[in-house]
Amino acid sequence: MRSADKGFEGFKSFYIFETKFGAITIVSDGSAITAVWLKEVSVTGAKNEASPIIGLAARQLEEYFAGKRRQFDVPVSPHGTVFQQAVWKELLAIPYGETRSYKQVAQGIGNPDACRAVGMANNRNPISIIIPCHRVIGSNGALVGYGGGIDMKRRLLDLEKRNSLPLR
Question: Per residue in 78-116, pLDDT tens?
Fold first, then answer.
């Protein structure tokens, strides 16, 4: 198990859940989710417990993995720069089952020349899946740049594609 990188804020409690997509570490500041990592991470200075907000996030992630949830309503509070926050907000606007290129995200935040900076902000997204950075692809349609690995990105996009038909 790895330790969390220093420099992150908002770590009050964390818990590691096993899912059909592997281990996921969910971190909370007590009122919102501050991180979701697609691996086991021990968070120094935080209590290892499934708090109510972490439990809610875990349930919503399980529903997502089961194809029963398309949007998350668990409160999130990602820590980042003003630019990163703008990019992450734009990622939340990408509909379930759809993708956008880095250029489209840059255009969406009103900075069409910031494709590389969008890529870096995407890479720094602390709340995987809930803030859907996996929905951002290369302008040629290639699956590039996902912290959880390209295989995980493909699996998440395939899951959404399979389940993007109307819910019954």
Answer: 999 999 999 999 999 999 999 999 999 999 999 999 999
- Tell whether 46 is covered by a domain: yes
Residue 54 in any domain: the answer is yes
pTM of the model: 0.88
In a domain, 75, yes or no: no
Catalytic residues, by residue number, are 133
- Note whether 45 and 88 are same-domain residues: no
**Residue owning tokens 């910031």:** 114
Sequential DSSP letters for 57-100: HHHHHHHHHTT--SS--S-B-----HHHHHHHHHHHTSPTT--E
